[in-house]
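Lecture notes, part 5. Sequence design as translation. It can be helpful to think of inverse folding as translation between two languages: the language of shapes and the language of residues. The source text, in structure tokens, appears below.
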């Protein structure tokens, strides 16, 4: 069994899909040949494929949610759980 990974997809309607994996739950929307979605790791990915060929490529459009927050005042990166910006002291949502 070594090397096996669990992965399951549930289709909701024509374009929406829920992806279940060991890491958690992700979701994506798309049409044959093009999908965009959020993975269980919080990263947004765009997948372009050629239907019927099995060929596809995936691009990560953003980093995980925990690293993508920025201070609204100074624009510097802040931690996901920080209440105040460490650079300028602005209050964070
Ligand atoms: Zn700041």
């Amino acid at each position: 069994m070594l090397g096996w990974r669990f992965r399951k997809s549930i289709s909701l309607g024509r374009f929406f899909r829920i992806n279940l994996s060991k890491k958690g739950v992700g979701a994506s929307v798309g049409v044959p040949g093009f999908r965009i979605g959020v993975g269980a790791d919080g990263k947004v990915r765009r997948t372009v494929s050629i239907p019927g060929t099995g060929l596809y490529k995936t691009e990560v459009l953003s980093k995980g949610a925990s690293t993508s927050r920025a201070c609204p005042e100074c624009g510097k990166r802040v931690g996901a759980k920080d209440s105040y910006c460490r650079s300028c002291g602005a209050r964070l949502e």
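The translated text above is only one of many valid answers, since several sequences can fold into similar shapes. The mean pLDDT is 86.
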